[in-house]
Amino acid sequence: MRLSNLVTLSLMGVASAAPARHHQHIEKRDAVTTTVKTQVTVTQGITGQTNALLQEDAVVGTTAAAAVAVAAAAGTTSTLEPSSAAGSSSSSGSSPSSSVTAGNAKGITYSPYASDGTCKSASDVASDLAQLTSYGIIRLYGVDCSQVENVLKAKASSQKLFLGIYYVDQIADGVSTIKNAVESYGSWDDISTVSVGNELVNGGEASTAQVGEYISTARSALTAAGYTGSVVSVDTFIAVINNPDLCNYSDYMAVNAHAYFDENTTAENAGPWVLEQIQRVWTACGGKKDVLITESGWPSQGQTYGLAVPSEANQKTAISSIEDTCGSATILFTAFNDYWKADGAYGVEKYFGILSD
Ligand SMILES: *[C@@H]1O[C@H](CO)[C@@H](O)[C@H](O)[C@H]1NC(C)=O
Ligand SMILES: *[C@@H]1O[C@H](CO)[C@@H](O)[C@H](O)[C@H]1NC(C)=O
Fold this sequence. Notes:
alpha/beta, TIM Barrel, 8-stranded parallel beta barrel, 39% helix, glycoprotein, Glyco_hydro_17
């Protein structure tokens, strides 16, 4: 079943037939956020932030410094292998300022759908990708619309793909589609990570044990297909914090974290807020897993939600803040406005496009 058909159904009001939450944000309120929020309050450059964390609480601060180093390692294409990244974090964790780099983000998410939910053509995908060459990683969510093939054909040679098998009842088919695309249009070296499922625990669509089974199934099929890189599930930061069993399955922690949905964070503080969530996830996993933010952005339109005000100016401010604070550990959300989506909570869902006018 193709995603575009499901999206079209959903837009027509037959939502129950669709996996209703495809790419929709449904982050739950985070009751404990406020208790740790004071740890990171000002953006002072990377070293300054780390010092602030350390001063706030010696124990948490130490792990936070390590978390930053870990996050940076996870976000570095050349060190995405969990062993090297995890090894450096547990042994040192002392020099985050040397491993977290400001500037452009690690990557950006991309979905190949036209406004009506139909698949973009290969040439439209190529035009889109030509605007994304400054991002080292392109994150895709599914294998429909020949997107793996089309993006492999269109991407710059140095760019890597963070792939997604969206439908967990079609893991074997997803791996097969990926394998065929990779063998025809690239190599496994083009793939930094394969993820299975997006926000399943956050959305109440799977238990942590089920997520473990999905990852295991995907990893076996991918290994048989010749892929030996990272395999993860993606969930929200709060789902991992509330369900730390999730730490046991993925090769590293791939989490979505949107400051807008926090409601108490301004666009100016989006970056420090994301950094704080990296630290919290790292701590929730006992310092054993790297953390990569697989979605973080800010809407350019929609309703004001507490201190979170959507606007084009605030989107620029928030993205700059994220890039300056933890860009090397973050895949930004998202390349272009998603007009194919439902309006979503607070009417923001369509308007996270960073390159859209
Ligand atoms: C996850 O790992 C932790 C630490 O090794 C362990 O205590 C826990 O039982 C594991 N959970 C599951 C569901 O395997
Ligand atoms: C935002 O702050 C208010 C007031 O302190 C608090 O009641 C609310 O729970 C906070 N929201 C979140 C998502 O933390």
